[in-house]
Design a protein that fits this description.
Number of helices: 5
Strand content: 25-35%
Number of strands: 8
Strand order of the largest sheet: 6-7-5-4-3-8
Shape: elongated
Radius of gyration: 21 Å
Structural class: alpha+beta
């Protein structure tokens, strides 16, 4: 995931440089200054850089209180939610995952515990290592339990409410489903 981000950052930097060089080419039109290179860069950035996050932005937009998006669950703001979905590991394998998210009295996510199925304890250790690197300072700890990589992430810095969290999970996983309390994945 970090490779993709680094590539996008490098591409954005190249587009910025192109925009600066292209700002030399402009022409006046009806009292304004038109810069066709800058407009072209805006369109290219929108297409090449924003498509990867378009579904997330849409999920956040549709979950905002100013819109009449339907709630995904009727649960109270505090408490916990559980999801089951499929994730792709660093080796490209698809794995079943179960996630339990705890919400505080303010309705914001406090922690997320994920359990990702692996074919062996060694594969689970590799998943834990990858997750620890990916989550950085948010990492709260993890272990291998029966061939599963189980880890917890501190979510308080993200300041995500229940409704937004549900929308993000549903928008970014093809097969996510909200589990009832006590339901197995």
């Amino acid at each position: 995931m970090k490779k993709v981000s680094a590539k996008k950052l490098a591409l954005a930097g190249m587009f910025c440089a192109l925009c600066v060089v292209g700002s030399v080419f402009s022409f006046p039109m009806f009292g304004s200054k038109c810069a066709p290179v800058q407009h072209m860069v805006n369109v290219l950035c929108a297409v090449l850089l924003a498509l990867a996050v378009a579904s997330t932005c849409f999920a956040v937009w549709t979950s905002a209180d100013t819109h009449e998006a339907p709630a995904l669950s009727s649960a109270p703001a505090s408490g916990a939610l559980a999801f089951a979905y499929t994730v792709q590991g660093p080796d490209g394998q698809l794995r079943n995952a179960r996630e339990s998210v705890a919400f505080g009295d303010d309705g914001l996510a406090e922690s997320s515990t994920l359990s990702i199925q692996a074919e062996s304890d060694e594969a689970a250790e590799a998943l834990l290592s990858e997750a620890k690197e990916q989550f950085g300072s948010s990492w709260s700890g993890g272990s291998v339990e029966g061939g599963n990589a189980v880890f917890t992430v501190d979510m308080r810095a993200e300041r995500i409410d229940r409704k937004t969290y549900e929308a993000l999970i549903m928008a970014n996983t093809a097969d996510a489903r909200l589990l009832a309390l006590g339901e197995e994945a």
